[in-house]
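re: ur question from earlier - yeah i can do the single chain one, its not a big deal. heres the input i used so u can compare w yours
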Amino acid sequence: MGRKDIKSEEDPKTPKVDTRYYDELFKRIKDQESEEFNDPEALDTLASTILDQITEDDKELTKCLYSYHIDYFIYKSTLERFTQLFELLTSNSERLKELLNDTRTSRAYEACLLIIGGKVKGSNDVEKFETLKNCMCNLGDYFVSNLEDILESHNGIFALRSFLRVIGKPDVLEAQPNEGNTNKKFNKFRRNQEFSIKDVEVKLVPEDWKLNVYIKKFSKSLKDMNLLETGLVAAVSPFTSLLLRKLATSYPDKSSETLEKIHKQFVKKPNSFNSMIQDSIGSRFIESFLLACPSELLKVYLDENLLPNIVTYSKHIYANYPIQTLVKYRMDKEETLGPLYDALVENLPSIIDLHTDLIFKNYLIVELINVCQKNSSLNFKNLIKTLLNYLGCSDDENKIHFLRVLLVYEKLEDIQKESSADMALYVMDLKPIASTIAIKLIEADEKNINKSFNSLNSNELEHLATNSVGSHFIQQVLQTCLAKDRTVWLQSIFDKLKGRFVNISTNKSGSFVMETLWSVGTLKQRIMIVDELKVCENQLKNDQYARFLVNKIGLNFYKRKPEEWKQIQANELKKKRLFSDIISDGPKNDESSNYYKNKKYKK
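and the output i got, formated as C-alpha cells:
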C-alpha cells in the first residue's frame, strides 16, 4: 500500500501481539490444497467464526488485524462477511481512532477501502450497499474532523489517501487495468504464492453513494494550511497531490480557489517553484498542481518557469515528471501547450542522450510521438527532422539507415559499414528504449523508419529476432503489421527469415518470435514454416525452447495428414477473421493445438 509497515521489535509504540492463532486460520484459507479452499460453505463458516470472535472481544480484534494475512482474508471474504468486518471497524468512533492510530491495524482499513469498490460491483444487495455506504460516511466524517491532526501526526494518513482514491471521478495518474484482465493474477493461487493488496485492481465506489462531497470538505479543511509545506512532506504530499487532482476533475469550478491560493504562495516565494520541482517529493506535488491548473494559470507557469528552464528541467531526474505528465495528459487537447511542444522539439538534442542510462529523458521522445498522433496541429515533421539531424541521418541517402542508428544507440559516422556481419554485431547491442521509440515511429507510419526497416537484410533481421530486446521489437512490428493490414511488410519479413526458422526456434528469445510469426501468418505463410521445420522435427522436439512451438503448430500431424491439417488451419484462420474482436490468439483458445494433442490416429 505504498510503503513497508515494518517496525523494530524494540519500538515502544509497537506492542507485542501474538497473532499465531489467526495466522494459522488465514493460512488455511490461503492454502490451495486444503479441503476448505474449494468448499464455499466451509470457508464461510470459518470466516463467520473469526468474525464472531473479534466482534465479542477488542483484544481479539487487535490480534486479528495484526496478522500480516489480514489483507488476504478481506480480499477473499464474501460481500456479507466483508460488510460485517467493515461495519465493525467503523461503527465505534473510539475504536476507529485507536485502530487508525496504530500502523499495523490501520492496514485493515486500507485493504477494505481498496477492495470495497470491487466487492459492490455487480451485486444488487441493497441492504449491504446501504450498510457499506454508512460505513464510508462514518469513516469520511472521522477524517474530516481529524484531518489536521492526521496530517500532522501521520496516523491513518495511508487510510485517508485510500479513502480519497475510491471516491469522486477516476484519477488520470492512477493506473487502471483493462476490464478483461481484472484480477487475473489472483484467479488461481499456488502454494506459498505471496498475496499483495497493491496488485488488486482498485475500483471506485458507486456514484449514487454521493461521497464526492468529502472532496470539498477536505479542501475546506486545508484552507488555513500552507500547502507548499505539505507538498514537501513525504507522508502527506501524496494525499494533497491526489486531492488537487480529484478536486479538478470532480469540482473544476470550485478548485480554482485552492489553486489560486497555491499560486499566491508561489508568488510570495519566487524561488520555491524552482527548488520544489527539482525535489523528489515536491516534483510530484508540482505535477498534480500543473495538471489541475486551468489554461490561464498554466500559461503563467509555462512562460515564467517551464519554458525558460526547459532543458534543465527535462534533463533533471525529478523535474522531468511534471513536463512529461503535461505532454501525456494535456498537450493533445490544449493549444496553450503548443509552445511547450515547440520548445521541447527545438531543444531535443540538448535534452536527450541515447548513450546514457537515464532512460526517462529518452521516453520523452515516445510521449512526443504519441501526442503528435492525437493532435494533428503539432508539427510531427519537425520532430522527425530534429531526430534525424541529431542521429546524423539528415542526408537523403543516410535516412535509410535510420532504424539501424536508432537501435544501436550510435550516430551514423560511428558505425562500421564494411560488411553486413559488422552491422549485425551492432544490431545485437540494441537497448529497450530505442526499440520502444522505433516501434512508436513505425506505428505512426513515419516514412523514414519504414524505409529503414525494409532495408534490413536477412542476417540483421535474424539477429534482431534472437536478441532479448530485439525479439520484442520484431514481435511488436509483426503485431503492428497485422493491426494495420500491412501484408507486404509481413510477407517481406517471412521471405527474409525463410531458411532461418529452425535457428530462430531453438533460441530462447527467437522461440517467442516464431510463435508470433505463426499467430499473424496466413495459411500460405504457416505452410512455409512447417515445411521448413518438419525436416528437423526430432531435433526440435528435444529442444527446450522449440518443443513448445512443435506442439502448438501440430508438426507431427502435418507430416501424417497434410491435407487435413491444412483444412483445420484454414477453418481456424477463417474463424479468427470473423470473430477477431472476441477470440484471442492464445494457448487457451488454440483449438488446433488441443486437436493435435487429443486426436487418436487410426491405422
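The two ends are 61 Å apart (CA to CA). not sure if urs matches, ping me
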